[in-house]
Amino acid sequence: MGPITNLRGRDLATETKLATHQHLLLPGKPVSEHILGEVRDEVRREQAADRKLGKIVSANIGRRDEIAIYIRGQARAAADVGLQFDELFWPATLSRRRIRLPLPSSC
User: Fold this and answer.
1) Which residues in 24-41 are b (16+ Cβ under 10 Å) and which e?
2) Is residue 107, in this structure, part of any structural domain at all?
């Protein structure tokens, strides 16, 4: 996989060095595709070596509509790279003490 480039095809690492005193917008889609591609390749290598993989768990306290978009993105990214994804929904009234306890073994 080659370097991550911006929409003008310039290498982002080089452009970042050039932009020390100016603002730089990173193109999210190419960066995301690059990272997901690397993770996907690593997951495939681990699967080919018959190694056990973990899963991504999103623990959510209180159901909020604005968080649902973020959770869908997590689930989509996990599926894209071949990892299992689980969601945990806890009530908004959950105590700080309980939040700090380990996740259930079913996760």
Assistant:
1) eeeeeeeeeebeeeebee
2) no
State whether 12 and 45 are in the same domain.
yes
| Model pTM score | 0.65
Asked whether residue 1 falls in the same domain as residue 15, the answer is yes
pLDDT digits (tens, 9 = 90+) for 4-53: 554 455 555 555 555 555 666 778 888 899 999 999 999 999 999 999 99
Decide: helix, strand or coil at residue 52: coil
Structurally, how many domains does the chain consist of? 2
Bridge partners of residue 84, in order along the sequence: 55
61 plus 37 within the same structural domain: no
Give 47-95 pLDDT, tens digit per residue: 999 999 989 989 888 878 888 889 999 999 999 999 999 998 888 888 7
Beta strands in the chain (DSSP E): 55-61, 84-90
Q: Which domain holds residue 58?
A: 54-101
Residue 70, H or E segment: helix 65-81
